[in-house]
Amino acid sequence: MPEPILQIQDLNVRFKTPDGIVHAVKGATFDIAKGEVVGVVGESGSGKSQMFMAAVGLLSGNGEATGSVKFKGQELIGAPQKLLRTIRGSKASVIFQDPLTSLTPHMKVGQQIVEILTTHKNIGQADAERRALDMLELVRIPEAKRRMQQYPHELSGGMRQRVMIAMATACDPDLLIADEPTTALDVTVQAQVLEIMRDLTRELGTAIALISHDMGVIASMCDRVQVMRYGEFVEAGPVDDIFYAPRHDYTRMLLDAVPRLDQPDKPGHPVLPPIENWWERETLIDVQDVKVHFPIRMSGGLFGKTKPLKAVNGVSFELKKGETLGIVGESGCGKSTLARAVLQLVEPRQGAVVWLGKKDLMKTRGNELRKMRREFQIVFQDPLASLDPRMPIGKSIAEPLITQEPHLAASEVRDRVKDMMKRVGLDPAWINRYPHEFSGGQNQRVGIARAMIVRPQLVICDEAVSALDVSIQRQIVDLLMKLQAEFGMSMMFISHDLSVVRQISHRIMVLYLGRIVELADREEIYENPLHPYTRGLISAVPLPDPKLERSRTRIKLHGDLPSPLDSRAALTFLKSKVIDDPDAEQYVPQLVEAMPGHFVAEHDPV
Amino acid sequence: MALPLSQDAKLEAMTAAQEVKGRSLWQDARRRLFRNKAAVVSMIILSIIVALAILAPSLSRHAYDAQDYNQVGCPPSWAIDMTKLDDLDYADANPEAAICGQGIVMSFETALADWELACGEGASPGDGVVCGAKPTIDDFKHFLGTDAVGRDLWVRILYGARVSLSVGVVATVVALFIGVLYGATAGYIGGRVDSVMMRFVDIMYALPFIFFVIILMTVTADIPFFKDPFNRFILIFAAIGAVEWLTMARIVRGQTLSIRRKEFVEAAVAAGVSNRAIIVRHVIPNVIGPVIVFVTLTIPSIILAESFLSFLGLGVQEPMTSWGVLISEGANEMETKPWMLIFPALMMAVTLFCFNFIGDGLRDALDPKDR
Around Cβ B173, how many Cβ atoms within 10 Å? Predict the structure, then answer.
């Protein structure tokens, strides 16, 4: 075994808080060798980030680290700030999760890299600029020269994370600490960023400590894995051992909870009952050519001009009773806006949403619409933000009920609230608690109980599990499937995570820039994707299976999502018809039925 | 910790907990408020002050506007020997007592002797002599002393409390009511309505407060309805409240704007809750923290604003008084008659402390995260 770059010996991290001392990391011991990628997996609060923050001396003021951290033989715990600064900047760099907050907003991207180089490398301005440009090209930023002169807010999320990687690697570090580097990114961008990191280890021999909760990312990147729970390593070993022969229960539980794109129905979990006789079933909602265009103010003229942002641009689909429709797409594709348009929560909107073949919700207003709302409810992404912090959860759950059925007696409301709490796995004795007293998963159960209490016929889950840890995610998905079996409601399940959507949905719709690119059965869309975007999306999802990951060939989608303000963007996959003018009226790709029940948007042959 | 999913067994145990009753934020807040010692003590002190102000006429044998020509500018009666005010030796030894002794027309003994002579036992009151009650030493005693024209300070402080507390509380409630509703509406509706509503607030801001009040007071001076002292008094509330709500509206509007975008408001809309119920149930409870802090700062500033108006001759008129007036009079006489400043200022300070503690307590009580 080569000389380890980083040696952590019995590292303990404690935080002094008003509620006593929190022992965040308990005696962690491990090494990272040159050129090695070590994954640290664990759920939120397991102390995985704090361990590395302690190692490079970035703990917050109330934290204290004991033990030993040796970087190339040099002790870092208790080392003077000056030494730590030199090491942090040039020899061991950190990439943080949020690429927007970790770049200085008022400095040009190029300058930020140059600053690091001139500080640590002792080179002149011109050399530093040349090197910065090389770095940006290395992380495959297109038009790197122009990007150097841009501010962070002018770049997309994926681009910013690439700039962060360029900054972190500018001084040829021996160790790169990547703290959830791709969690905030879309899958296709994540695939690109991971590949850049993979190339770095290969070409420069940089060791990477990859902190992640995503087993797929770990499987595709790492040589060795450390599984962490409550500040302790419960299991460690080569990646294949961890994935194929996990010894600890926690690792097994974690692997079991991870959604797998290639195995939607895992043993030991509720199985999605198929929808039989789809065509004969009653249609719950018929969405016809829904459009949501937001006016965006552009500079120019005395008062500026407005340009429509076509968030949802002509989406049509049908949802049958008892069916779950999965909606997948990357950020900015209009999936949340579509949900809100169906629920009549956004203005302005066009098209029709026909409820049970009778009533067009788009034309329903005021009190009539408010009464109709009992039939369609929504579960939000952020469980804490979607609950009133000053309302006890019992009152939050009861709110739709007392709004829709004001004649109910207080005792009856209470009984129904308690009954619903039991069904979603909450203790009815907790009705007087406030949302901040609960974990994310419990709050999401509250959100589900609130949506279900009026027994709606349609529940829209807008990224309902995206903010949760995998094990909790699995529980919530199981709960939703159980409730669907019980109440028979229809669902629209929106997520950026194709694997979760595949677990729970009968049919899957892929959105791209406000339009449907493909709509098909859950099996069909995975086995036989027709649209190049769907193929790229499926290929970008990392599988929690290291052997499979190594042998997979990826279909790459280059670059970022184009701006939805650019009318050419809609024709990304139909370049043969594009008119090269950002403001021109473009051809609209039509949805064609390639096979019975399998719709795909027109695209150039691949 | 999250519950495991298989919990049918656990549900049995849960049924036992069925009895728990639902509580609202307000019930929780009341419970937490009454656990806050500083707030409870403040509430007790404040209720005592309010009770004193209400019962003022029956708490003192002196009227608030009666001048005692025997004791002009006298120190508190417990600080001096009341029987020796006209004694020159005593006056030499106690200069403050001497100040009030100089104006003495009659000492207690002389007054008593006169009364005995005219109306006492065996005396037959002559023509034009009206016999009052027999003078007692208490008639000559002024618990907190007298002011520069011989009016009893204690009873004047109590009467001043009536004006100051009601101006402070009523004007604040007016400002709170208009400001919160106006701000919450502007912030919740947003868009063009918000712009128009807030530009109006900006225009009102641009008018200097004093200019506004002087115009209001002089314009209404000739209207017979406002000549009545009580109606004029109401006008002061209106004038002060009309200015104070502007800041309140701005604070509430800013908070509402941020709350309106929160998902829990969207969740309420999705549940079919009406706009009015959303403002009352979700928006207002969540803006209340900064509002309460602002209220505790508003009450003292209104009490001071009232004294400033009175000083300009636009507020309460003599012989009626307020704490602001008493304090400004006391400040003028501070070197020779310190009690005229100390006692009204002390009362005001205690009251403001109480309001602040109650405000803090309320804010904490309404924040469920603060346990």
Answer: 13
Q: What's the mean pLDDT in A267-290?
A: 83
Residue carrying structure tokens 């346990």: B371
Is the bond preceding residue A295 a cis peptide, omega within 30 degrees?
Answer: no
A384 CB near a chain B CB, below 8 Å? Answer: no
| All structural domains of chain A with their residue ranges | 4-257, 285-528, 566-606
Average confidence score pLDDT of chain B: 80
Whether A4-257 and A285-528 share one fold: the answer is yes
Name the residue with higher pLDDT: A191 or A319. Answer: A319
The residue whose two tokens read 């990859």 is: A210
Q: Which residue has the higher pLDDT, B97 or A167?
A: A167
By the 8 A CB rule, do B282 and A391 touch? yes
Structure tokens at A299: 């500079």
Q: Are A377 and B270 in contact (CB under 8 A)?
A: yes
Tokens 């939703």, located at residue: A480
List the structure tokens of A565. 């303000």
What is the rounded average pLDDT for all residues in chain A?
Answer: 85
Q: What is the pLDDT of residues A3-15, one digit of tens each?
A: 788 888 888 888 8
CB contact under 8 A, B18 and A392: no
Per CATH, the number for A285-528 is 3.40.50.300
Q: Model confidence over B42-82: pLDDT tens digits?
A: 999 999 999 998 987 887 778 888 777 777 777 787 777 76
Q: Read out DSSP for A402-449?
A: HHH-TTS-HHHHHHHHHHHHHHTT--GGGTT--GGGS-HHHHHHHHHH
One CATH from 3.30.70.270, 3.40.50.300, 3.40.50.1220, 3.40.980.10 for A4-257: 3.40.50.300
Count Cβ atoms below 10 Å from residue B33 Cβ, excluding itself: 17
pLDDT in tens, B281-290: 898 888 888 8
DSSP category for residue B147 = -
Nearest 5°: CA angle at A545, between A542 and A551? 80
What stretch of H or E contains B247?
helix B229-260
Helix axes B323-332, B284-311, angle to 10 degrees: 40
DSSP state letters, B324-342: HHHHHHHHHTTTT-THHHH
Give B304: exposed, middle or buried? Use CB within 10 Å, 0-12, 13-18, 19+. middle
Using CB atoms within 10 Å of the CB of residue A441, give its burial: 0 to 12 exposed, 13 to 18 middle, 19+ buried.
buried
B3–A426 C-beta distance less than 8 A: yes
Residues A579, A583, A589, A590, Cα dihedral to 10°: -130
Q: What is the dotted CATH code of the domain comprising B26-56+154-320+352-365? A: 1.10.3720.10
pLDDT average, residue stretch A134-147: 80
**Using beta carbons and an 8 Å cutoff, which residues of B are at the interface with A?**
1-3, 5, 7, 10-11, 14, 17-18, 20-25, 28, 262-264, 266-274, 277, 281-282, 285-286, 366-369
**Mean pLDDT value of segment A590-606:** 83
Name the residue ranges covered by the structural domains of chain B.
26-56+154-320+352-365, 69-114+132-141
Confidence at residue A325, expressed as pLDDT on a 0 to 100 scale: 94
d(CA A87, CA A282): 65
Residue A331 is which amino acid? S
Q: B357: how many CB neighbours lie within 10 A of its CB?
A: 21
CB contact, 8 Å: A528 with chain B?
no
- Peptide linkage before A348 cis (omega within 30 of 0): yes
- Read off the pLDDT of each residue in A69-97 and give the average, rounded to a whole number: 84
CA A68 to chain centre: 35
A residues 459..518 contacting B (CB < 8 A): 471-472, 475, 478-479
Task: Compute the distance between CA of residue A32 and CA of residue A5 in angstroms, rounded to an integer.
Answer: 6
